[in-house]
């Protein structure tokens, strides 16, 4: 598995990181070596310790050796550069690095990118905080089927503004996260909306991902997966 380094014109950059827990870098306005970003690495003991019992549950069937830890830079909603981290399957690591490089160069706004373990692997809590995340060994909500997140081959982008919307048999609509209901009507215009004209959609499609917004049984506007 190759490691891709993203070359920037400056060797150092001022990074502001917003973290949910103290085990994530919380130092603000810190000059960090950019060579540590846009790279894919095996899961270290320190990272695996954060994942155990949370995203990497006791019954997880995905070998740790198949997962990769990715660090990226991105622009937050405040326009400042922030550091982010993801765990994904090795098969899509290069795709994600290249996609996030392009998003970074385009100043594409992503509010936060933290391991879902910072939210105790609680998908709803992660979405409520509009957290972009990837690997989480879990079933699809309301079913016995393992999600593609369980393999680390699916990612959710700005999920609060791009909720999962499902029409129920009784005619009502289920929206996840619940606070994303205001953004479930995709005919409206609002910030951070993913649609067919959005750069995120175009980049993920270019790399062979399927978008949940194109599904028929439900619409998962935050979700991209690659089989």
Automatic annotation (TrEMBL):
Pfam family, one: Peptidase_M15_4
Keyword field contains Cell membrane: no
Source organism of the structure: Leyella stercorea DSM 18206
Protein name: Peptidase M15C domain-containing protein
CDD domains reported for this sequence: L-Ala-D-Glu_peptidase_like
Keyword presence, Cytoplasm: no
Domain named Peptidase M15C: residues: 142-226
Domain of life: Bacteria
Endpoints of the signal sequence: 1-19
GO MF annotation, one: peptidase activity
Keywords: Signal
Matches recorded under Gene3D superfamilies: 3.30.1380.10
């Amino acid at each position: 598995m190759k490691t891709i380094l993203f070359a920037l014109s400056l060797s150092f950059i001022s990074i502001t990181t917003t973290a949910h827990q103290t085990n994530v870098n919380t130092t603000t306005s810190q000059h960090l070596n950019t060579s540590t970003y846009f790279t894919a690495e095996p899961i270290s003991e320190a990272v695996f310790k954060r994942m155990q019992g949370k995203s990497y549950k006791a019954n997880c069937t995905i070998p740790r050796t198949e997962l990769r830890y990715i660090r990226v830079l991105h622009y937050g909603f405040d326009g400042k550069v922030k550091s982010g981290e993801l765990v994904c399957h090795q098969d899509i690591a290069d795709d994600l690095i290249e996609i996030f490089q392009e998003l970074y160069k385009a100043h594409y706004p992503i509010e936060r990118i933290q391991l879902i373990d910072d939210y105790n692997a609680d998908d709803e809590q992660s979405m409520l905080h509009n957290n972009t995340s990837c690997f989480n060994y879990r079933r699809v909500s309301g079913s016995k089927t393992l999600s593609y997140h369980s393999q680390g081959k699916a990612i959710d982008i700005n999920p609060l503004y791009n909720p999962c919307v499902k029409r129920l048999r009784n005619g009502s609509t289920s929206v996840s996260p619940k606070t994303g209901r205001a953004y479930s009507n995709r005919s409206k215009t609002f910030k951070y909306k993913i649609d067919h004209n959005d750069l995120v959609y175009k980049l993920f499609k270019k790399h062979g991902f399927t978008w949940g917004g194109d599904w028929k049984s439900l619409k998962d506007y935050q979700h991209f997966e690659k089989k």
